[in-house]
Amino acid sequence: MIVVNVNRSYAQTLSGELTLQEATEGDWYGINDAAVAQYGDVLVGVWNNRVVSVYDIVGHVRVDEGTRVRFQVQDSAEFGYLVGQPSPVGPWKAGQARPIVYVDTDVVRHGDAPQVEVGDAKRAVVRGYVLSVDDTGVATIIPPAGGSVLVSPASQGASVS
Known about the structure:
Blueprint: E1 2-5, H1 7-15, H2 20-25, E2 28-29, H3 33-39, E3 42-47, E4 50-63, E5 68-75, E6 100-102, H4 105-110, E7 116-118, E8 121-126, E9 129-134, E10 139-142
Parallel strand pairs: 1-3
Antiparallel strand pairs: 1-6, 2-5, 3-4, 4-5, 7-8, 8-9, 9-10
């Protein structure tokens, strides 16, 4: 999975100069062929640390004399649920120069990853369910497509940890 920060081009999508797909496909500098081979199955666009677009990568072309990559994509049925959610790689930091982060798709898909710090929260993924708990104890659960969430209060006198 390749996660790209579309902050620079997002204003152009709002004004109609670019579609969100075009902004996400980009002309991304510094992505080498090894990275495309290893991580080039899904392309995630992030704006303001939220997922705004998710596509399956079906191809790519080199542009600007081979220094940049433009992805060819189609809507992602599997990862469409990420749209509107926090970035799967955590927030971009002020001054962070590189607008591209690589993440193993199976970590997002299966949640075989340990808890990770994401801003002021801890995040874990279990069988496609994304659980984030912030420092104030507010929990957010994002189920996969077709999934459901049952919330029940802890019984009186019981503690949940």
